[in-house]
Design goal:
By secondary structure, this protein is of the alpha/beta class. Helix content is about 45%, strand content about 15%.
Length: about 325
C-alpha cells in the first residue's frame, strides 16, 4: 500500500511528518511518499537511511491562507500534488495535517464526491467510558441543509462500522431536547428524514454523548466544531485542576506518584495523538485529516487510520450505504 504524506502541512512540518513516517515504516507494512521540500526532508533525516520516495516541491499552503484561493493559485503546493497522486492512482491514500479548509477544497475539486453525497464531511472520535462515539460534522460544513445531515449520518454509520468495529451503529441528532418538536428548523426537518434510518434513536442532548445513547452523533459543522473544541479545552483544563490539587495536597510523596500515573492513564484517552486523523468522508478517495498540532505519534496513527480505511474498503461501504438509504 502506498500512502502520500503532505510533508509541508501542519504547525510543526516537516519535522513531525518525517519522524512520523519513520515510526510508520518500522511498524506498518506501507510504502510512504513524502511530498515536500526535499532539502528540508533530508536535513531532518540526517545520517539515517531515507526509505521513502520524495516528490519535491518548495510550495506549500500555509495554515492561515484562504483555502479555495490557495488551492487555485498554488498548483505545485505539496497538498495539491499529493491529492493529484491519489486521483491518478499513484497512491492509495493521502494524509495531511495542514490547512483543513484547503484539504476539503482540494479534495472536492480534484477528486469530487461519492455519487449521492453533496458535501464532504469531517468527523471525530470521542472516547467515553463505554466505547468511542463518532461526531459528524465537526467543521467542514457550517451552513447545512437537512439532506446534508442525513448524508452525514449514513457516512458516520459506515465509518463507525468499518473503522470503529461497531455493528449496527445507532444514530442520534444533537438538539436542545429529546422531544421531536424541539430545536430549530434545521433539526426539526432533519429529524423527519432521519426517521427512515432503522437505527435512528432520536434527538440527544450534549450530555447524552457520554451516556452511551448513540454511536454516531449528527450535527452541522458549527455545532460540531464548538463541541470538539469545548471537549478538548475542558479535558486540558480539568487535568490541570486535578494536578494542581494533587500538588497542594498533604498525601505522601510516594502516593502522589501512583496518583499521577493514574491521572496520566485516565487523560491519555483524550489525547488526539492516540487516535491520529480522521477521514474526509464523502470524497472519492481516502483522505486523512490530521490535527494541525500533530506530533510524530499522531502522524503515525494517522497513517495507521489511512491504512485501515483502505483495507476495510470504507469508500465502498459508504457507496453501499448511500444506495441503501437513498432519500
Amino acid at each position: 500500500m502506498r500512502i502520500a504524506l503532505d510533508a509541508m502541512g501542519g504547525d510543526f512540518a516537516p519535522q513531525v511528518l518525517v519522524e512520523g513516517a519513520y515510526i510508520a515504516k518500522d511498524n506498518l507494512d506501507v510504502e510512504l511518499v513524502l511530498v515536500g521540500d526535499e532539502a528540508k526532508i533530508r536535513e531532518i533525516a540526517g545520517n539515517r537511511e531515507l526509505p521513502f520516495e520524495i516528490i519535491h516541491t518548495e510550495e506549500a499552503i500555509q495554515m492561515n491562507e484562504h483555502p479555495a484561493q490557495a488551492v487555485k493559485s498554488k498548483k505545485r503546493a505539496s497538498l495539491v500534488l499529493a491529492v493529484e497522486m491519489l486521483r491518478d492512482k499513484q497512491v492509495d491514500a493521502v494524509v495531511s495535517a495542514g490547512n483543513t479548509g484547503a484539504f476539503v477544497a482540494c479534495a472536492s475539486l480534484i477528486l469530487d464526491t461519492i455519487s449521492g453525497i453533496e458535501r464532504p464531511s469531517i468527523g471525530i472520535t470521542i472516547p467515553t467510558l463505554n466505547h468511542p462515539v463518532f461526531i459528524i460534522d465537526t467543521g467542514a460544513n457550517i451552513d447545512c441543509k437537512p439532506v446534508y445531515l442525513y448524508q452525514f449520518a449514513i457516512m458516520g454509520m459506515s465509518y463507525s462500522h468499518s473503522i470503529l468495529g461497531i455493528d449496527n451503529p445507532r444514530v442520534g441528532l444533537i438538539n436542545i431536547g429529546s422531544e421531536e418538536t424541539k430545536g430549530n428548523s434545521l433539526t426539526k426537518s432533519t429529524y423527519t428524514i432521519l426517521k427512515s434510518i432503522p437505527n435512528f434513536v432520536g434527538n440527544i442532548e450534549g450530555n447524552d454523548i457520554f451516556e452511551n445513547k448513540a454511536d454516531v452523533v449528527v450535527c452541522d459543522g458549527f455545532i460540531g466544531n464548538v463541541l470538539l473544541k469545548f471537549a478538548e479545552g475542558f479535558a486540558y483544563t480539568f487535568e490541570r485542576m486535578i494536578r494542581g490539587a494533587l500538588a497542594d495536597s498533604v498525601i505522601p510523596r510516594s502516593a502522589k506518584i501512583f496518583v499521577d500515573n493514574a491521572i496520566n492513564n485516565a487523560f491519555s484517552i483524550y489525547d488526539f495523538s492516540e487516535y491520529g486523523g480522521t477521514p474526509l468522508l464523502g470524497i472519492n478517495g481516502v483522505c486523512i485529516v490530521a490535527h494541525g498540532r500533530s506530533n510524530a505519534k499522531a502522524i503515525y496513527n494517522s497513517i495507521k487510520v489511512a491504512k485501515k480505511s483502505v483495507e476495510s474498503n470504507l469508500l465502498k461501504e459508504i457507496e453501499e450505504g448511500v444506495a441503501s438509504y437513498a432519500h
